Amino acid sequence: MERTLTLIACLSAFGMQAQLTHQPVPPHPEYKHAGPAAWVEGVAGMAKGASYFTEDFDNGLNGWTVNTIAGSVDWEVTSTGPGPTSSTYPVPSLNSSTPTSWLMVDDDFYGTPGVATDTWLVSPVIDLSGAPPNLKVEFEQYFQEWEEDHCYVGVSTDGGVTWDEVEINEGVGRDGRPNPEVIDVNISAWVANDPANVQLRFRYTSIWDYGWQIDNVTIKDLPANDMALIRTWRTGFDFDNTGLANIDYDIYPAEQVREMQLKGLMRNKGYDPQTGVTLTFDVQGPNGAEFNSASSPAALAPTDELEELVNGFTPSGDIGTYTLTYGIDQDQTDDIPANNTVVRNIEVSTNLWAQDDGTCTSTQQQGPDNATDAYELGNYFDLVNAGSQLVAIQVAVHESSAVGSLIYGIVYDINTDFVEVTDDHELLAGELTAVGGTTNWITLDLPSPLDLSDGTAYLIMAGAYGGSDPVVFCTRRDQRSPGEHHPLPQLGRDLLRDEDAHGKGRARGPRGDRGNGPQRPQRGTLAQSGR
């Protein structure tokens, strides 16, 4: 039986981004200020524990000093966040829990191509002689990775002559980054050198990358027993190593369900060894239990990590929501059980395919230097099973778009060669969507159902012609499991229709961003990288 899918074109865009040239912009309207390996973790929400030092920067630097070793980009106090740039992925302001002010390195705005930066933020001396021996430093951050940026957290007990430090944020990517993200670093061994004379250092190095924002620096108790689930995966998708295979979707059409790869990364964040540690996997489908498995028991010393995966789970295809629960069990009683469980959902639909849940949380349009250019934004769809037809593309358009502007849907094959295009659609006032509001899907029908071949992928996009009237597409900033990298989160859908059913359904996948000339369906130049 052939089924016809509707694909979401840009709520979850992915992969290939048009390269936009970085150009100078007006000045930022913000005042500028001229042992053992540690482990690190990013989680949502502050952990419990007594606090022995805290700084929220609401009174400025408050005794902290800035030392810029290379380049001209400094740490600065801000209450507004990064300045505007022509980046394809502009950096948002830190969603600090104390938003009066925070600290920032605005490398994208102030940096210069090819020029190295090395800037330090150093605390005043902190007396921890009355604190217990097992300590961690916690802070809120926003960071998205580009190419040559590195972030370090360090401790000195000799007045800054020598530093112990650990690199954080390595390999986290730029997409779907938590905001804020709470990071903690075990500083016990470093503080032990001289607890009465502790200084913290946040060091950022780069060659013109995005930057780093931090707030609410706290030194707290390190728990004895704390196993934490650091990352979870639903598929084996790895763009760098596997290309477009096993893309991670939030909604699958029933005929395109496939075997998933459930995986989790655990870490012993406490100071005591943990025994009998298992990672558990449980899947509840629309009609009951679908899958249950657990890893073999293991022992983890402090700071140890263990990654466990299980194959063999394929959704039954029942229409509805599937709840995937990842959990940790161990012999000891965990002091912070809240970080032992992650719950994630997928949905199986009759004919909708999507890489996100359809919530508009952000927007995307051309950069300032390309503000009037035509452009396209969309998602890849990786077909595993035969028998699907594409009948329509859905997209959400932000309320800042000009009523009366024209948009269209367009299909490319895996090689980005043109396949099909919809008619133009003129935007109506009632079709626009606010961030956080109800998503108003605009359906762009193809001229006729398009047969899709299994074993390949299609790039499904929504486009606008540019000019003086803006078209701003709704997107979703992907809040996936901490540390999980998914290239470029966006918002858009595509439809698959069951020929035995009445009406149309939908389906969507990962996305790409194409810069196009004014002629449609002429292809634009693609690049694997874009700031």
Describe, in plain words, how this protein is organized in 3D.
The protein has 531 residues and is an all-beta fold. 2% of the residues lie in helices and 43% in strands. It is built from three helices and 36 strands. Strands 2, 3, 5, 6, 8, 11 and 13 form a seven-stranded antiparallel beta sheet that branches. Strands 15, 17, 18, 19, 21 and 22 form a six-stranded mixed beta sheet that branches. Strands 25, 28, 29, 30, 33 and 36 form a six-stranded antiparallel beta sheet that branches. A hairpin with a 2-residue loop joins β17 (274-285) and β18 (288-294). The radius of gyration is 24 Å and the shape is globular. The two termini are 44 Å apart. The model is unreliable at 12-47, 478-491 and 497-530 (pLDDT under 50).
Q: Total helix count? A: 3
Determine the mean pLDDT.
82
Percent helix, as a range, is under 10%
How many beta-strand segments? 36
- Name the poorly predicted regions: 12-47, 478-491, 497-530
What is the molecular shape?
Answer: globular
Give the distance, in angstroms, between the N- and C-terminal Cα atoms.
Answer: 44 Å
Given the helix and strand composition, which structural class is it?
mainly beta
Task: Give the biggest beta sheet.
Answer: 7 strands, antiparallel
Q: What is the oligomer described by this structure?
A: single chain
Cα gyration radius (Å): 24 Å
Q: How much β-strand is present in the residues? A: 35-45%
Features:
531 residues; mainly beta; 3 helices
Structure summary:
The chain has 531 residues and is mainly beta. 2% of the residues lie in helices and 43% in strands. The protein is built from three helices and 36 strands.
